[in-house]
Amino acid sequence: MLNVLRDLLKYDGRFRVAALFLLLTLLLAALSWVSPQPPNKTYLVPPDVAPSLAYPFGTNSRGQDLLWWMAFAVRNSLMLGVITAIVSRVIAIFVGMIAGYRGGTIDRLLMSLNDSFVVLPVLPILILLSFLLQGQLSLVALALLLGLFGWPWDARLIRAQVLSLKERSFTRTALYSGTAPLQLTLREHLPFVLPVVFATTINNMLWSIGMEVTLSVLGLADVTVPTIGTTIFWANQHQALVAGIWWWLAAPILVAVLLFLGLYLLFSSVNEFIDPRTRLRRIGA
Amino acid sequence: MALLQLEDLHACYRTEVYGISRSVRAVDGVSLELYENEIYGIAGESSSGKTTLIKVLSGTFKPPLRVESGRVHYNFGSFAVDMLSIDPEELRQNVRWKQISYVMQGSMSVLNPVRKIMRTFEDIVRTHQGIADKKSFVEQTRQHVQRLGLPPDVLDLYPHQLSGGMRQRVAIALATVFHPSLIIADEPTTALDVVVQRGVLQMLKEIQNESANTVLLVTHDLAVHANMADRVGIMYAGRIVEEAPTAAIFQRPRHPYTAHLIRSLPSIGDKTIREGLGGAPPNLASPPNGCRFHPRCPLAIDRCRTEVPPLTTIAPQQRVACHLVTEAG
Amino acid sequence: MRKFVLSYLIPRIGQYLLVIFLGVTLTFVIPRLSPNDPVEQQVSQLMMSGSQVSPEAIEHMRVALTEMYGLAGSPWEQYWAFWGRLLRGDLGPSLSSFPTPVNQLLATAMPWTFGLLIPSIVISWVVGNILGAIASYYENNRVIQVVDVVSQAVRPIPYYIMALVLLAVFSYWIPIFPFSGAYPPGARVEFSLSFVLTVLYHSLLPLLSLVLIGIGGWFIGMKSLTSNIIAEDYVVYAENTGLPRRQILTQYIMRNAMLPQITGLALQLGMLFSGALIMEVVFGYPGMGTLTFQAVMANDYTLIMGITLLSIVGVATTVLILDLIYPLFDPRVRIQ
C-alpha cells in the first residue's frame, strides 16, 4: 500500500496535484477545530473587509471571518460527501453483487430498476423533497437522502466487475475444487471489486458535494449550517458580486475548485492505476 | 535475387511503467531469405519471437517495439525497399497491400464491425488504386471473391453475420486483391476448427499456386507447416535454431529442439505416450547464456552453456544452430 | 427483424414505461411521506399573511386545497386520480400566479430551456468527441495536450461554480456580458432580428458554461474509449492495409467509439438537464430552472409538482428517442 502511494507520487503528476489540493482542503477543514469563531454567530468581526493579513479570506457582510467560516464549510461538505458515499456504497455493492452473482431474472429486474434510477432526473425530485421539508432538512438527513439516489451508476460498474470475475478460469477452478461460494466471493473476488468501489467512492463524493451546493444555492437546505453551498447562498442573498464584495464568492469558489479538482484527479489517477487495460497499454503489451 | 534479405535483426521491447523499466529482446540476431514463389513457414512456441519478427518484416512496428540493428531489404522486381529506413508515407502508398499484405492473427475481428464487407474492399481499393467506375469495381470484387470460392453475397453482409471460417476467407480475399509479392499469414487458422482449417489452408495454397507469390506462414502448428510450407524455420527464444526444406526437416530434424517438436506430433496408429519437455521457454528479459535451449536440452554439453552456437549451413538450404551437430560435422 | 423487436425494441419501451412509473410514483409518494401537510402549510401561510379571513372561508379553502392536491379519498383512489390527471395533461392551477394553469407557465418556460440545452449538448458532444478522438490518435500534438489539461481541470467543476466564475470574470471583472436574463428587462419578446441577436448575446455565457463542462466530459470519455479502440484488431488491420490516417480516425476509430458515447448521452441526460436548470438560476435565464427557483421562493407546490413530472417524462422520452435512433448507427443491433 505504501509502495503504491510512493510510486503514484513519484510517477503520476496528476496524483501529486491531487495530493497537494486535498492536503490543503483537509488542512482548512482541520482549522475548524481551533476556530475562535463559532459558525452560527454573526457580526463577530467588522463586515465587508477585503482579504488582508488579518483576514486572509476577507470578511462577509454578516460580520463573519470567511477563513473560519470556510473551515467549517469544507468540513461539513466533506462530511456530507463521506456519509453519502457510505450509504450509496452499501446499496451499490449489495445491488451490484446480487445482480452479478444471481444473474437471470433477478439480474434483469435489478438492472431495469437501476437504469431507471440512472435516467431519472434527480434534481427535480430532490427539489420537490427538500421543498416539502422546508429547510428542516439537516445536513445528515440530506446526506442520507443523496445516498439513496447516488448508487445506480456504481452498482452497474460493480456488477460488470462481478460478471467478468465469474467468467475467469480461477473462479471455475476454485468452485470445482470445492471452495464455498461465500468464501470465493470474500477471499478471491472482493480484492478485485474493492478498487472499483474505491474509485467510484471518490466520484460519488464529487457528485454529492455538487448536489449539496445546488440545493443550498436554491435555498433548499438548512442555510444556517456552513457548507460550500450555503456560503454561496448567503453571498447571493447579499448580492455580493453587485456590491463588489467579490471575495465572498472567491473563497467558496477557490475552495470548491481545490476540493473538486483534487478529488477528481485522485479519482482518475487511481482509476488508471487499477485499470489493467491502461497499465497494459503503458507497457505496450 | 531473393525477395527479402533479412540480416542479423535485433529488436526489443523497451518499457517504463511507474519507474520500472524493462527491456525484452524478442528477436535476437535473425537472418533469413525469402524467395519468389515459395511458402516459407516459421514455427515456434508462443513468445519465441514469431510475431515480433513479422511486425518488423511488415513494417508495422511501433514503440515500445524498437529495432536495434539489422537490415530488412526487399526486392520487388521493379523497385527495392529498405524497411528500416523507408519514409512512412512511401511505405503506406507503394508497399502496403500492393506488395506486402497481411492475414492477421485473430482475423475474427479484423473487419470493421459497422461496415459492410464491400465497404472494406472499397476502402482498400480506393486508397491504392482509385475507383473510377463504381459499377465495374463492384463487379470485379464480386468476381474476385467468387474465384476464391466465396459466395459474392457475403460482400453485402456485416462481419458479425459471418462465421469464423467465412471471415478468415474474406480476410484472405482482402489480402489478395492486388496480387501482392508477399502475403504474411500470422496464425491464419489457429482459432478455427479442424474442418474449416483445412478449407482455409487449401484456399491459401491455391492462391499461392496461381499467382506464384511468396507466402510467409507463421504458426505454432507443425502439422500446418508439413502440409503447406516449402521451407520451414524453427524459432526458439528470439532466434532461428534450424531451417531446412520441409521434407528434410520432418524426416531428419537436426536440432534437439526441432527433433523434440516433431517427435511430439501424433501419427495414426501410434499409441505411445508422448514425452513432455521439461522446463519452460526462457524469460527474454534475462535469457540464459550460450545456447538458449541448453537448460531444457537433454543433450547439452559444457560448451552449450557458455558459447552461442552460430547458425551454420550444413547442407544446401539447410542451416542449424547447435554445437552437437556442427562438432559432429 | 422479429428478434430485433423482441430483444431490443420491447425491452427499451418497457424500460421507458418503468422509468415513468417510478418517477410518477415517487412524485406521488414523496409529499405523502413528508411530515409537513401541504394543505396546512398553505392555510397557515395565508393566516400568517395577516389578512382577515373568516373560519368558514378557511375551512372552505382547506376542502378546496385538499381536492386540488388530490388528497381526498383513500391512498389508492388518490393514486389513480393522480395518474388520471397526469394522463389528461392537467397539472392544476399555479398557486403563486393563481389561476394561471401550471401547463401554461411550463409552456412559456420550456422553449428557453430547450433553446439552451439542445445547442449546448449538440456542440459539446460533437466537439468533445472529435477532440477526444484526435487526442488519443495524435498523442503528441501540442494543442491537444493543452485541451487535455484544460478538460481534466474543467470536468469535475460543478455547473454552478463554473457559471459563477464566468459571471465574475466576464460580467464583473471585464464587463462585456450582461449579468442576467435572456434579454434586457422590459424588452418585448418578438421574432425580429434584433431581438434574436440580443437573446444570443445574453445566452452566450450560460451556453458557454454548459458547453465548457460538457466538452471536458465528452473529451475525456472519448479519449479513453479511443485509446482502447486503437488497439482493436480492425484498426491495426486498417493501418496495415495502408489506409490514410484520417480515414482510419474517422471511419474506423470515431465511428466505433461513437456508439458507447451515444449510450453515454442517453444515460447522462438526466444530469445534463439538472445542470441546465442550475445554470438558468445563476444567469436569471427565463427557463424551467428559474421557474423552479421562483416556485420554491413563492411556495408554489403545484408548480413544483408540475416541473418535476414534466422533467421526468421529458428526460425519459428523450432517452427513449436516443435508444430508438441507436440501431441506425450499430448494425450489430439492427441485424441479428
List the helices and strands and how they pair.
The complex is a heterotrimer of chains A (285), B (329) and C (336).
Chain A: H1 2-11, H2 13-31, H3 66-102, H4 104-119, H5 122-133, H6 139-149, H7 152-167, H8 169-176, H9 181-217, H10 228-237, H11 240-243, H12 246-274, H13 276-283
Helix pairs in contact in A: 1-2, 2-3, 2-12, 3-4, 3-6, 3-7, 3-9, 3-10, 3-12, 4-7, 7-9, 9-10, 9-12, 10-12
Chain B: E1 4-17, E2 20-34, E3 39-43, H1 50-57, E4 65-75, E5 80-82, H2 88-95, E6 100-103, H3 117-128, H4 134-147, H5 164-175, E7 182-186, H6 194-211, E8 214-218, H7 222-228, E9 231-236, E10 239-245, H8 246-251, H9 256-263, H10 302-306, E11 312-315, E12 318-320, H11 323-328
Helix pairs in contact in B: 5-6
Chain C: H1 2-33, H2 38-48, H3 55-68, H4 75-88, H5 102-137, H6 142-154, H7 159-173, H8 193-229, H9 233-240, H10 245-283, H11 288-297, H12 301-329, H13 331-334
Helix pairs in contact in C: 1-12, 2-3, 5-6, 5-8, 5-10, 5-12, 6-8, 7-8, 7-10, 8-10, 9-10, 10-11, 10-12, 11-12
Structure description:
The complex is a heterotrimer of chains A (285), B (329) and C (336). With 285 residues, chain A is an all-alpha fold. Chain A has 13 helices and no strands. Chain A has a domain of 141 residues. Chain B has 11 helices and 12 strands. In chain B, helix 5 runs parallel beside helix 6. The model of chain B has no long low-confidence stretch (mean pLDDT 88). The mean pLDDT of chain C is 85. Chains in contact: A-B, A-C, B-C. Chains A and C meet through helix 4, helix 5, helix 9, helix 12 and helix 13 of A and helix 1, helix 7, helix 8, helix 10 and helix 11 of C.
Helix content of chain A: over 70%
Mean pLDDT of chain A: 85
Number of helices of chain C: 13
Task: Output mean pLDDT of chain C.
Answer: 85
Q: Work out the helicity level of chain C.
A: over 70%
What is the strand content of chain A? under 5%
Structural class of chain A: mainly alpha
Keywords, please?
heterotrimer; B: 329 residues; alpha/beta; 8-stranded mixed beta sheet; C: 336 residues; mainly alpha; MetI-like fold; 13 helices; 78% helix
Short précis:
Chain A is mainly α and 285 residues long.
